[in-house]
Amino acid sequence: MSQTVIGIFDNPTDAQKAVSQLVSKGFLQNNIDISAQSSQERAAAFQDKEQDDDSIGGFFKSLFGSDEQTSNKYASVARAHTLVTVHAQTKQEAQQAADVLDEYGALDIDERAAQYSSSGRAGSAVTSTEGAMAIPIIEEELQVGKRVVETGGVRLRSRIIERPVEEHLRLREERVYVERRPVNRPASDQDLAGFKEGMIEVSEHAEVPLVSKEARIVEEVKLSKEVKEREEVIKDTVRKTDVDVEQLKTDDLRDRPANL
C-alpha cells in the first residue's frame, strides 16, 4: 500500500537539503515533489487563510478526504511555507522519509497551525495511506554501555638525599726521639769494634684513615594493581507513544460530518 509523507519547511534551503538526503538514501527523484511559495504568495497566504479552492487546498483535500478540519489546517500552514511530498511504496520507506524530513527541520504543524487559529492533530512529518490514517508508535530504548575513566593513581618519584655520618677510629703514630747524654767510661772491645764510620736510619710510621663507600639495597618499592568488579543498577526512564482508542457513540456522531 503506497503512503504519502509530507514535510513543511520554513526555509526552502532546508527543504532542498532534505530532498538531497532522501535521494542519497535511494528515494527516486520522481517520487519526491517540492513546492516553494514566492514572497508575494506568502504574503497573500497570511492575509487570506481560507483559500480552500487553490492547488494546495485541493491537494490536502485529496489526501485527507472528508476530514476538512485536518486538510484545512495543513493547507493553511503549507501556503506560507515550502512543501516537500514523498510518495513511499512501503511503511518502512514512509518512516525513513519522515525521519529525514524531521532531521532537516520540518515544522511542528500543531504548533504552527495554532498561530493561524487552527486546531487538529499532526506532527512535523505526516504519514497518510490511501484510505486510512496512521499514527506512528514511537518507543525509546535504554542503551547502557561502559567506558573507562581515571579515578586516581599513584606516582613514584626517586631522588637522592644526603645525610652526615660519623665514625670513631683509633690511629697509631710513631715518633723517633734522639737523646744525647754525657758518658765517661773506658771504651770496651765492643765499643772499639764499632769505632768506624756508619749510618743508622730509623723510620717513623703512622696510621691514617682509609675511607670507601659501598652501595647496598636496603628496601624495594613495587607497584601492582588489584582489579575488583562491582555491579551497579542503572535507573532511568524511557518514553513511548500510547494511543487511546475511544469508541464514539451514535449521539456523538449525529451532527458531525463523516471522517476517514
TrEMBL record:
InterPro entries: DUF2382, Stress_Response_Assoc
Highest taxon of source: Bacteria
Domain DUF2382 residue range list: 136-245
Name used for this protein in its record: YsnF/AvaK domain-containing protein
Annotated organism of origin: Rhodocytophaga aerolata
Classification of source organism: Bacteria, Pseudomonadati, Bacteroidota, Cytophagia, Cytophagales
